Amino acid sequence: MANTPYPESYYAASANAVPPRPALQDDIETDVCVIGAGYTGLSSALFLLENGFKVTVLEAAKVGFGASGRNGGQIVNSYSRDIDVIERSVGPKQAQLLGQMAFEGGRIIRERVAKYNIQCDLKDGGVFAAMTAKQMGHLESQKRLWERFGHTQLELMDQRRIRDVVACDQYVGGMLDMSGGHIHPLNLALGEAAAVESLGGTIYEQSPAVRIERGANPVVHTPQGKVRAKFIIVAGNAYLGNLVPELAAKSMPCGTQVITTEPLGEELARSLLPQDYCVEDCNYLLDYYRLTGDKRLIFGGGVVYGARDPANIEAIIRPKMLKAFPQLKDVKIDYAWTGNFLLTLSRLPQVGRLGDNIYYSQGCSGHGVTYTHLAGKVLAEALRGQAERFDAFADLPHYPFPGGQLLRTPFAALGAWYYGLRDKLGV
Ligand SMILES: Cc1cc2nc3c(=O)[nH]c(=O)nc-3n(C[C@H](O)[C@H](O)[C@H](O)COP(=O)(O)OP(=O)(O)OC[C@H]3O[C@@H](n4cnc5c(N)ncnc54)[C@H](O)[C@@H]3O)c2cc1C
């Protein structure tokens, strides 16, 4: 049987030790079968267990194998589209609910870390950095917008103030969110998995769901076993493949790449990011970076549409890092890796139900660390019969990619090229 290890990364190399988990080799029954042990699956499992459900998680590879164990580690609140865009699409009542939830994911992460004593280098403080006056204007209106929904902790920074928190000359200003921050993402997933097990949940690794038998009592098949459940939660996101064709048709896996320097030492690290905040810029094809617990710089950026693995990640990302921090020109890159997130045409998440008992959440299009934690809570609420917040997400429109599965990659790349050009021209 296939034994898929973690891809080589800084996170895999610095992961907290955990015992291996078995593959499913039996026929079992459970209340909820969760497919995928990333944040969406683990957060759903935890909320369900806390509410008395019996939960079984099937993971094709290992806990946090997907984006949840490879991401930039940035706790970025809200969604990949602004609330005013959402409001225009679904109306004020739904927008009000979604707006109120926009910062809840970050709170859930902090609650999880505290309640289950998860060792994942959690740090407070995230910066949105503006590269042009237009982007700064956008941050100002975004702050006003978020305040309308009760999120008043944000601080605008002028050019001088942002230079105090990040030693990069590219920015004209920015916005600081102290409810943002950063984590070691794989260790967060591993800690959440341990919490699932501490509450009696079961996680099977190396156990891909290969077929779902739909019906009143759905059955999930793996190569050597099956799980009969009252409910199924599909949480495979960009790694799901074609298991659920309805979900594959309206989303597109995309790759994004990350590099990690050698340890910089306390002094150099502090000179770059004195308060240890994480930073993302405001471009459509954005760069994002932060320090690790052992004072390396993790720098991410770039998108590969269609999720092909680029040949030389360092050659793509290092020049971006040196543009932001020329002072790192002699610093060695110790790790470089790629991971897949799931893009939707609207860039908003797709949440819903297939038939009566198969629930899903996917496609947060980049800003997923907080959203996925919220999604787990909202899915668990729906399974408990409280669907108001679930419905607010489920009512967001889902669009198929133009050109279908064959042409969605070139069309999306064309769109990104256009927005990338706008970023470059500062328009
Ligand atoms: C390189 C990178 C950097 C990123 N940086 C950030 C960031 O800094 N901040 C931020 O907010 N977001 C970031 N994101 C996005 C964020 O990581 C994701 O949105 C989020 O982790 C998605 O979580 P998930 O649980 O939905 O999916 P995943 O974490 O991808 O988990 C899906 C899991 O399902 C499993 N699976 C799939 N199919 C099956 C099956 N048939 N049977 C069983 N298991 C299956 C997979 O093996 C995988 O473990 C980044 C993403 C990438 C790739």
From TrEMBL:
UniProt keyword Oxidoreductase present: yes
Top-level taxon of origin: Bacteria
GO molecular function, one term: oxidoreductase activity
GO cellular component: cytoplasm
Pfam families: DAO
Xref: SUPFAM superfamilies: FAD/NAD(P)-binding domain
Keyword Oxidoreductase: yes
InterPro entries cross-referenced by the UniProt entry: FAD-dep_OxRdtase, FAD/NAD-bd_sf
Keyword list, A-Z: Oxidoreductase
Domain FAD dependent oxidoreductase: 31-381
Gene3D superfamilies: D-Amino Acid Oxidase, subunit A, domain 2, FAD/NAD(P)-binding domain
Protein name: FAD-binding oxidoreductase
Annotated source species: Pseudomonas vancouverensis
